[in-house]
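ok so i was messing around last nite and threw this chain in just to see what happens. nothing serious, just curious
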Amino acid sequence: MNASDASAYPTVRQFIAGQWRAGGQGVAAEVRNPATGQVLAEVPRASTQDLDDALAAAASAFELWRLKSPQERAAVLMRTAVLVRERVEDMARLMTLEQGKTLAESRMEFMLSADTFEWYAQEALRSYGRVIPPRVRGTRQLVVPQPLGPVAAFTPWNFPAILPARKIAPALAAGCTMVLKPSEETPMSSLVLAQALADAGLPAGVLNVVFGVPSEVSSHLISSPLIRKVTFTGSTGVGRELARLASIGPKPCTLELGGHAPVLIFDDADLERTVATCVQGKSRNAGQVCTSPTRFMVQEGIHDAFVSRYGQALDALKVGPGLDASHQMGALANVRRVDAIEALVADAVAGGGRVVAGGQRMGGQGYFFRPTLVVDTPETAQALKIEPFGPLALVRRFSSLDQGLAMANDTPYGLAAYAFTQSAATAVTVSDELQAGGIGINTFAVSAIEAPFGGLKDSGYGQEGGPEGLHSYLHMKYVHHA
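result:
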């Protein structure tokens, strides 16, 4: 790590009741620059008192924030969007330093975060109830939306700004308050959002940000009677445990969990466009995306041409430190991902798979792995069973539409699924039959601020984005006037 990197990364603090504070229990973790492996900072570890203070602040602030008009809440969110856009270059550099993705991707993530605050500022004005035609003349039957209360939110390291924003913005728009625990590996991306919200006039205690040992923090927050809702983005295993903790309450959950997205590429697909789209989709954030395309089922007639072109294109990608604008893919976020991808490739090859592109970690410093294409992937390969969460694409052949759909749906996950075809009939069929919360036809864009996003099966339940994202923080109270 050079001196400029060290000086550009601030001291990490918690944000509780509108104040910045260190952890009452020392250090929880170190932040490392994935491009070099060097330590950037230490992350504070919340004490029980820190967590209780954050809970108390959220509960106290809720009594005031819930009474603010939608216009008042919207004004804070709109000012936050403006500030994020003004500060985007500094924010993006911090994200790339701590997470490893390219500067262009970091910049885009913060711009989408600003868009999210802006969209939910507007959606706050549309948190409608309804009047039910009464059965008895002279009475009134009303449905009145009201905020649920303080929320416990947990977010991972792969998208350390947009994922917190997708929870903070609708929760605050609805009138809820929040205690957020982001990943200890990428703390500053969420803290700069907290600073922007505070600078935009968010009252103290409406948003609190804590760090620590994940299991300790989650169990303490979720078990508190002050918390009225839980929202989590992350692995299926952790999601199951948080759902169990919340069920004791019982408290409603929104869980956006793992994925293992299939891609059906039909003989009639536009080969050039399909390859270019697949390269971009697979290299985005080095494949560390819950909706990343991983299992490529390619129809026999186009299989060989696709594999040849796709392998060449992946090999041509420029991989290196994300702060260098010439690089198209940055580092993986941590050494765990490098080790995992290396093991999955070795397992697939041992079972009969063949590496067409990549297949190895890059030498030198940092956590880099070449984007990898494995063909003739055996059914026994571990990578077909567990989410790779890295730059690994697995190719298998199929012949008929029915066979392709069966292969695509042969997974416990159901977050995203894709198909490439020029046939309108095929597009309709796969849209209906693919078992996933989001379907992309000739695109990997299955997440939009104004649209619901959520999975089926082991990919979780509940939705973020769109009006549904706001509604998940509201209780629809029924009022009957006789």
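not much to say yet. The chain has a mean pLDDT of 96.
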